[in-house]
Amino acid sequence: MLYTENVGWRWVFSSALLTNIGRSVLPFAEKAFCGLFQQLFPDDCRVCGEPLREVSRVPVCRGCLKKPGAILADYFCKDCQTPFLNRFPLDENGRCSLCRLGLNGFDTVYTFGSYEETLRELIHLFKYDRVRPLKKPLGRLLARAIPTERAFDLVVPMPLHWRKRWSRGYNQAELLAQEISRLRGLPVAKIVRRVKPTAPQAGLSNSKRRLNVRGAFKIRKGAGVKGLRVLLIDDVLTTGATASACAGVLKRAGAKHVAVAAVARTDRRISLEWSGNT
Ligand SMILES: [Zn+2]
Ligand SMILES: [Zn+2]
């Protein structure tokens, strides 16, 4: 068995070894191995359903892992990077109304793709179906969204409330933060706590989401962020209300710069297009 960086453990056979094993043993060995193999590894890609041709800890084919593309738009807010269909929501400095009014607690946002199609399915597998090895491919996509020329001092994962972390068994943002830490050579610091088990944000308006997460975060005692440039990691950015509340706590504790980085963001241009409201 060999270990390769990209896909984890692979089985490799030596032909000399095979000739040394008696031919009569082979059919049995082959059958036993296939049975074991199918028990240990799913045989179809969990996204497209095509049979998997390689053994990997990630039950998704190469094609599906390569599929997600970066979010594209002609108009983005300069600060929060929200994509827009036209330039009207942006002021003369290229900022959206939330950023213009100072309602976002972060300084900037980096996201890789739209929370749609294959990328959405990969994140669902990672977050809800406990496919933790997806942290590597998803971490690589996230790293592509963060400009290499931007310097940071700390990587901070978006915290989960302890009850949610306990029921899921892990914090998906923490796994992504570990990947970014490895790829960018930065320390991970779990310095923010989620002290309020907030109600689910789905279905709430933007202003209600902001109220819902008010007071949800606290800095851990003794954690120093004064003058530091923080990269706050999350899996998905929806309205940015949660990220904004968490970033606000870091800024109030003295962080010099807080950038939010998420693998995907919900693209509201899609729902606007469907409703014909362009
Ligand atoms: Zn596939
Ligand atoms: Zn903005």
Secondary structure: elements and pairs:
Elements lengths: L1 E3 L3 E3 L4 H6 L4 H16 L21 H5 L8 E2 L6 E2 L12 H4 L7 E7 L2 H11 L7 H11 L8 E4 L4 H7 L3 H13 L7 E3 L11 H7 L4 E3 L9 E9 L3 H12 L4 E9 L2 H7 L4
Parallel strand pairs: 5-10, 6-9, 9-10
Antiparallel strand pairs: 1-2, 3-4, 7-8
Helix pairs in contact: 6-8, 9-10
The site of one zinc ion has 8 residues, from helix 3.
3D structure, described in words:
The protein has eleven helices and ten strands. It is α/β, with parallel strands linked by helices. The strands form four sheets. It has a four-stranded parallel sheet with strand order 5-10-9-6. The chain has a two-stranded antiparallel ribbon with strand order 1-2. The longest helix has 16 residues, at about 25-40. It is globular and about 65 Å long. Mean pLDDT is about 85; it is low at about 1-20. One zinc ion binds near residues 45, 47 and 61.
Q: Tags for this entry?
A:
278 residues; alpha/beta; four-stranded parallel β-sheet; two-stranded antiparallel sheet; 36% helix; 16% strand; disordered N terminus; binds zinc ion
- Percentage of residues assigned to helices: 25-40%
Return the average pLDDT rounded to an integer. Answer: 85
The N- to C-terminal Cα distance equals 55 Å
Strand order of the largest sheet: 5-10-9-6
Described by strand count, sense and barrel closure, the largest sheet is: 4 strands, parallel
Could you give a short description of this structure?
The protein has 278 residues and is α/β, with parallel strands linked by helices.
